[in-house]
Amino acid sequence: RPKIIALANQKGGVGKTTTAINLGAALAETGHGILLVDIDPQGNASTGLGLYSENRNLTSYDLLMEGLPVRDVVHGTGVSGLSVIPATTDLSSADLDLSAKKDRSVLLRHALRRAEMNDAGYDFVLIDCPPSLGLLTVNGLVAADSVLVPLQSEFYALEGLSQFLLTVREIRGSANPDLRIEGVLMTMVDRRNRLSRQVEADARENLGEIVFRTVIPRNVRLGEAPSHAIPVLEYDPGSRGSEAYRALASELATRNRQS
Amino acid sequence: RPKIIALANQKGGVGKTTTAINLGAALAETGHGILLVDIDPQGNASTGLGLYSENRNLTSYDLLMEGLPVRDVVHGTGVSGLSVIPATTDLSSADLDLSAKKDRSVLLRHALRRAEMNDAGYDFVLIDCPPSLGLLTVNGLVAADSVLVPLQSEFYALEGLSQFLLTVREIRGSANPDLRIEGVLMTMVDRRNRLSRQVEADARENLGEIVFRTVIPRNVRLGEAPSHAIPVLEYDPGSRGSEAYRALASELATRNRQS
Ligand SMILES: Nc1ncnc2c1ncn2[C@@H]1O[C@H](COP(=O)(O)OP(=O)(O)OP(=O)(O)O)[C@@H](O)[C@H]1O
Ligand SMILES: Nc1ncnc2c1ncn2[C@@H]1O[C@H](COP(=O)(O)OP(=O)(O)OP(=O)(O)O)[C@@H](O)[C@H]1O
Ligand SMILES: [Mg+2]
Ligand SMILES: [Mg+2]
């Protein structure tokens, strides 16, 4: 079955969606089959891959709340090898809707580990989580084999990381004993800026090998690509953003071949 | 009684906390009495004003869940005229904890409109909300007289704005008929960058007068100040960030004197 990786961090605006889309596209470019699951009510990953909100008939809401199979809610994208389960704002009441269900934390885990997933052609499933530690992110962490934590090179983001890692430990101690940390990814790095260098140095000192060697630089092309509804690898294949996400895909694929 | 303004936007990382702290400090600098209420479980506004998590005995959690009066949970800061009700991670289960209470959306409104608030010396109350549309943000919008919406000059932020304004309309149609829009504030603006100019132009074209004339430029001093636990107005009083928040405070005070 595919390896399931959650993109999660309760700090907002750190690059979860940007990483889900562009890491997904870079892995697809090197021949991997990728499923991107958007469970953020904002639906940014869906928009960034060209699924306009009026075309999202069946979504991750239906996967979670109605128990529909993946094949009924999956949509193709313009990127060969990359499919997506889109999100809509229906999910914003998920915390309340899910709280009444008995098995509220494992719904996504069950949906993504059904027999149909073993021969659907996916090597990786990437789950884009919202900026909170509510039931949607909990579902993402319980469903996942590992979590990739984008870390913006800013003070508040570093401060929130220890809280986030405590939550991962809690989930590992309860609903998902096999949950591992895929890695911490430095994002929006600007090595000319002292604060950015300091945050990166602090993260590597405290977390060591967990921090990916690849860093994602601040690159305006990454901000422009979503308005064209394509990954940066198609929008501007030679940009520093594209190069960084290709390097990340290669580092991640190597880490996963070795283990 | 003081005017209550919520800083809210479900998009993450757009400058809610940075605006709450620095607008608060700029208003205090010009003689206004300011209470900052942190209802984000991340507690960034509390940290950014020097309230380390081990010193946050009584917090916004106690205000909401235990019904304690404001005077029992308020803390002073290093900025004269600026007090804060800090947040802790206890709030991250608020969506579930609050969902069981009958009056779950009006708890903060009741707490901030008690008779004690009429002669506590506050001119403005600023509420820093988390990046979601859950019960904490709903409490902020129901408690507020108006909402100030920071808008990062990025594509996803602009996309999320229409969803956010729908939510404001829903709250106005139900629990808080007097809720107004204080304004939309352009943040992290970089006029050298085409995307940033375009987002600002789109916002002004679609929203007109609602958008503050003052814009907040991208300025690294704003990102550095929180690691020193002081507002940017104290960290680097001559910086472009400080000047912008002083200009915003003056524009906001003028708007409020006229009406
Ligand atoms: N390396 C980068 N360089 C420049 N801009 C970036 C970079 N990474 C992300 N961005 C932009 O920064 C903003 C925040 O990124 P993104 O939306 O991916 O973060 P997020 O963690 O998914 O946010 P949220 O918490 O709201 O879900 C977006 O507008 C995005 O286009
Ligand atoms: N104008 C600016 N220039 C440069 N950096 C900024 C600016 N405004 C905010 N920042 C930095 O950008 C990051 C995001 O800002 P902030 O945390 O205030 O946003 P937020 O909306 O409160 O985020 P969240 O959604 O997680 O609550 C922070 O690290 C902050 O220091
Ligand atoms: Mg996102
Ligand atoms: Mg904040």
Summarize the structure.
2 copies of one chain form a homodimer. With 259 residues, the first copy, chain A, is α/β, with parallel strands linked by helices.
Major β-sheet annotation of chain A: 7 strands, mixed
The residue ranges of chain A in which pLDDT falls below 50 over 5 or more consecutive positions are none
Q: What fraction, in percent, of the residue positions of chain A are helical?
A: 40-55%
Mean pLDDT of chain A: 95
Q: What is the count of helical runs of chain A?
A: 12
Shape of chain A, please? globular
β content of chain A, as a range? 5-15%
Secondary structure class of chain A reads alpha/beta
Quaternary status: homodimer
How are the strands ordered across the major sheet of chain A?
3-4-2-5-1-6-7
Q: Largest inter-chain interface?
A: A-B, 37 and 37 residues
- Report the bound ligands by name, code or SMILES: adenosine-5'-triphosphate, magnesium ion
Query: What would you report as the Rg of chain A, rounded to the nearest angstrom?
Result: 17 Å
Number of strands of chain A: 7
The separation of the N and C termini of chain A measures 16 Å
Order of helices and strands of chain A: EHEHHHEEHHEHEHEHHHH
